[in-house]
Amino acid sequence: MANKKIDPVALIRKEIESLEHKVEQLRDRLMADAHKAMEKAKAQAERARSKLKAEQSKLSELQKKAKASMDAKVHKQLDRAHGAVEAAKEIELDAKALMIMAKDQLADLKGDYQRAKALAKAAQDAAKNFDKNTKPAPKKAAPVKKAAAKKAPAKKAPAKKAAAKKAPAAKKAPAKKAAAKKAPAKAAAKASPSS
């Protein structure tokens, strides 16, 4: 069991699943942070709006007073009120900018999540394709066929050689028999003229 081979596809799949889980957790955390930032920006914008309204009503009251009595104290209060209105406007603009940034961040997070999900799916598909293309059964069958192909010609070659060896022997045997038949005939022919 210690020598058992580790399946690389299984390891890749395990790693992909682990990464997908981490991406999900990260996405959830970032989405929660983005939602919190958006809520915070909304609350800040609401506070800025109410402060702006309060400062504007204060300013209109002071302007009414200024029309009634144009003394130096009212002028100072008027200047302070104008400054407060400007500051409130700036706070509201900052809050709106924060809200826009939070929305953009949320959109970016959604895009990143979609890309990460697509990459994980592509990796999963690649692992499946790799697994299909590298099945162990065809690898074992191929060498057996090659070995069988190599052995078959080796068996045929000696058979041809044996047939080649037998053929000349078969041809020689009738020649010897023919020569043996001719020899007694010649001997008989030689013997008959002398008698």
Notable features of this structure?
single chain; 195 residues; mainly alpha; 3 helices; disordered C terminus
Task: Write a structural description.
- Helix content is 93%, strand content 0%.
- The chain has three helices and no strands.
- The protein has helices at 8-68, 72-133, 136-194.
- It is rod-shaped, with a radius of gyration of 52 Å.
- Mean pLDDT is 74; it is low at 191-195.
- Residues 135-146, 185-195 have a biased composition (Low complexity).
- Residues 147-164, 173-184 have a biased composition (Basic residues).
- Keywords: Coiled coil.
- Residues 9-72 form a coiled coil.
Alpha plus pi helix count: 3
Beta-strand level of the residues, as a percent range? Answer: under 5%
Cα(first) to Cα(last) distance is: 101 Å
Main β-sheet description = none
Helix content: over 70%
Low-confidence runs (pLDDT<50, min 5 residues)? 191-195
Topology of this protein?
Layout: H1 8-68, H2 72-133, H3 136-194
Compact description:
This protein is mostly helical.
